[in-house]
Fold each of these.
Amino acid sequence: MKQEIAQKMRRAKERIENRHAEVQGSSDSGSPVFSNQNIKYEIGGRQGGVAMGGIGAMHKFVKSIGLDKVIDEKLHLLKIHKPYHESDHVLNFAYNVLCGGKVIDDIDHMRNDEHFLDAIGARAVPDPTTAGDFCRRFDENDIHILMDVINEKRKEIWAKQPVEFFEIAKVDGDGSILPTTGEKKSGMDISYSAPRKVCTSCG
């Protein structure tokens, strides 16, 4: 991280801590803390914002490790690139999920957001229909090729980690309960534990 950015983040953290310190122990001002501010909204001419703020960093990471190049070298599903390559399609699906997409049609939200397109340096991305056609080109061998490409890149990244990185392994043991879409089966939306058997003869 650049020193200038680190300083800005540190100063921002200090400002927040100071604001919290001012509120703690202060007396009642007679009005709620949430007040009415004179906020104005306008559309910027040169600068734009994107809801998927981290997509630029993710795309920069993909380019830095050369994942897109290896996908194009190993995966051959398209006879002609008009204009999309195999990596464009694969990343299109991956970025759709990263940006909160649930289904293939959610790609439309991204391809109609000019600031998203600017963030990944693309004139356009494949539409849902074209993306669906790309999926249908896969056979079992192609799936294994794509998996191998990703796994090889994963090993390269792990190999670059310092030795101390491997000293501690953390396992996320979160037991969150998530809803399912099995609407027709009774009880699928709740957690169920079988009643414990009690031995009456054991006292």
Note: The CA atoms of residues 91 and 194 lie 44 Å apart.
Amino acid sequence: MTINNFTPNLWAGRALANLNDAHVYGNALNRDYEGEIKQMGDRLRIQSIGRVTIRTYTKNTTITAPETLQDSEQILIIDQGDYFNFAIDDVDAAQNKITVMDEAMRDSAWGLSDVADAYLASLLEAGTATANILTALTSVGDDVTDDDAYKAIVDLDIKLNENNVPRDGKRFVIVPPWFEGILRLDQRFVSFGTATNVEQLRGKPIGAVSGFSVWVSNNVPVSGSAYTLIAGHPIAATYAEQISEIKAYEPPDRFADAVKGLHIYGATVTRPYALARVAVTEAT
């Protein structure tokens, strides 16, 4: 492959597709403003209004004057950026270069999404409403003396219900691999629903508990031995990303084809009440 035969738009499309496939936290959030970002530092203004007051009506009486709705503004800042930059030596057989390049692009996309997902996990943990942080469970396991992993998720569901978070099938909870393993020992989990309960592709939910899609991630926030399970609804936060630039070039001091790409992104918690979290530890 020579630099003249390189199509940046084609590779950019592949990189972004792979990026989306690998996201866990990123795929759980809404992307309502994604098409509006263009470069690092972009600031998107998100408008919202307060709740409308509901009053009791009495027949043959004058109703109150119309209330003035209170609006508020939140800012989504595209303040995160990561890049890759690799080269493939010209000594490599020409027939292998496309294959090697494709694999390198897939690995780059996975790496970028992994960094972004860790950022989102921390953002959601910090952005959860204080009232929605449940008491930590001392241990979770499959022994009769351990707390119930399934119940931990149900408790998160109850907290969101108390906040009138929509129950429209879009709720999510993200757990670490060891917690998933415990769930798989629970017949309430493995016998629920259809074949989606055994789907184990990264970036896809692996089942359902109490109205939540259950996702598995290695980026679940952890402090010591305590892992923070975060549950919520896509309305809780908005995320925007873009592979803003992919460039092919020939390094001046090497006989090689090189590619570099920049991933820009940002997120903000818009409705903290639509998130809930609990810290759990694995039983020993």
Note: Confidence is low (pLDDT under 50) at residues 193-203.
Amino acid sequence: MKAVRYLGNSKCKIIDVPIPRIKPNEVLISMRTSGICGSDLWGFRIKNGDIDALTKSKVKINKIPIPGHEPAGIVEQVGSCVKNVGIGERVAVYHKRGCGYCEYCLSGKVYFCKNVRAISEHIDGSCADYLVTDGINCLRLPDDFTFDDGAILMCSGGTAYSGIKKIKPSGADVVAVYGLGPVGLCSLIFAKAFGSKVIAIDINENRLKLAKSFGADYTINSRNDVMKNKVYEVSAGIPISAMDTVKKIFEITGEKGADAAILGTGNIQARINAINCLKKGGRMVLLGMSESKDLKGDMQQALEIAILKELSIFGSNVFPISMYWEILDFLRFKSIAIGKIITHKFRIDEAQTAFEMAETESYGKVAFIWD
């Protein structure tokens, strides 16, 4: 089968590898759609032929797992112990594989399992003709959903839905969405579906136009953000200076501030802006991860502002596997085709072009497709 292999320095190639064999509890999936996630780009951009894995150990490029963790496809083979799916069924594949028995796995929060194995991170992923996974990770994809829908739900869409549920948006809210990559765009779509007005913020004009087409009420390009004095008062007599983006949000909201903020980016300044732009008692959810571990600058002050404003700040890690059916019902009820955030599709042979396009971070989701 064909599979993607990272070479380092924003290069990859297609390699031929044997179709993997399955164990009694596993399933072989013939791929139909596999999205490229922002986290896949970290491996694509790696320098000097090595990758600093999450385990903090150095791993040679030729031992990095096949990338891709947004899979949807058709069941090709099933192990003797698999009972939940059969050959020929359409499935989306949850990308965190746990032990199946601990309190976290049984609650659906497989990502908290101490023995978790993520495809594309610890084991081979879905940028290949075939993918092996545990039977319990196969989620039936109803006929009224496309393979594109299923692939998006396995990371970007599911992550966005799980996160937005934590801040409980409503038709009375103004929600600021920072970072309009696939997670941010899905968050925007869900916030609109819950009835909120949405302010979409990014540094890329193409993505701002895309956000507008998906229903954003306001867009702000923060590329050339500058500091403004006395944007708002965090408390009587305590004026706060903040970036121009924050000032614009206060103007849009009648000087009150946004009710909620969603961080589809891990950018430190965006996190500071989000804290500043919220009204007193506002809510914020962090979805985007950062490659930078540098928290210097105004982050300390921002956290103190969070205290003074009594903000509710949530972290959100993928989505519980048990939430899958709730998301499907919500998409049906709201007539949302979540797969529409895929703006560019490529064959596996076009991997270099596909990753280069994803790396520009100027579009929606880039995905591989198979017939």
Note: The radius of gyration is 21 Å.
Amino acid sequence: MSSRRFTANPPDGGSTHGAPPPGAGFMNVVRWVLFAGLMLLAVVSLFAYVASRRAAPAKTVATTAAVYRCPMHPSYTSDKPGECPICGMALEKVETAAGGAAPAGGDVPGLATVELSPERIQMIGVRTAIVVRRTVGDVLELTGFVTPDESRLHRIQLRVSGWVRGLGVSRTGEPVRAGATLLTLYSPELLQTEQEYLIEAGSRDTMPGMSMAMTHDAAGRSAALERLERLGVPRAEIDRLQRERRASTELAIVSPVSGTVLERGVTEGQYVSADTPLFTIADLTRVWVLADLYEMELSRVRPGESATFTADAIPERAFPSRVEFVYPTVSSETRTVKARLSLANPGGVLRPGMFGRVRTEGRAAPALVVPADALVDAGEHRYVFVAHAGGRFEPRLVVAGTQRGDDVAILSGLAEGDTVVASASFLIDSESRMKAAIAGMGSAPASGHSGH
């Protein structure tokens, strides 16, 4: 009996176990081809994107953020409109880059170039001026005061001790003439020296006339006379002593000059010695004026330059002079240097202690000039606002020189023909500071506002 093999068909009518269905190999090939194509397309797209990024520069989109600020108090800002809580003014809208880049233009730290509309320029009253070259003299006004000429001061002192018998001058401020008696002095020391002189001088008359004796007498007489002169005995008293041959118990001290008694250091009956100051007398027919000169002004005043002094008490009269001397030291208290003038004082109208103004005039020189109101002095920096077309105002650092009247000389920072703001500079300065501050913040604050 022969055997037969039977192949059972699957219940779902599929192919028998172990044999792929018809067309399965072709479908597998198609799937792999599609997958490889997609991968190739992705790689090509990636390389194309990278190439495009390298070929073209990156472009950023500038975003702006609205900030509202007070025109009178730039430090107050808010992220929404309203009123300033400080002054009640309506807040103004200002747009700034969210990136926080500092505005371009200007070389003054903390300031930025601002642009104003013609209406706003007219509303705040902006006026401009052209920078011109003009001859400007180096004029400087200083505060000065009158003081006695030190070369005309005379201090009266003695070289002997004694007691004051009487005063010829008993008040300070009293005028005296040369040769007038200031005081009378009783001095036992001086009386003894005069008596010795008379004894030595009289011995010549009583001794025989021998040549050796005469020589000895002359030497002794000369020594006694020298002692009187070293003690400060006036020549008039020595002449009286030789004439009258009588020692006096009192010595009159006279004034050597005509002048005014500035100091009196003695009273009647007082004991005085060689170190006691008696009187100080000043010849006020010529006086000094000392002017205070600040350190930064030292180069502007030199000896020999013409100067004029006007006393506050006599404003209608000016006293011409020249700068005689500039002292070499700076006061540690006032940080000033003294400049000295010497003035003739006819009639004594200028009195020590008077204050006034010293005006010095140096040689004139051409310089760039702007109105004094155009210069903004912030202490650390001095600058102006240069006006450009389109209502643009640029802060510019300058070095200022001499001011004469309403004009200021500019040493550097500007060129002839530049246009500067000559009025309302403080308003533009406030706008410039506000713009620089907002640019530094980057974006508007997330909270409601920020105040003082």
Note: Residues 158-277 form one domain.
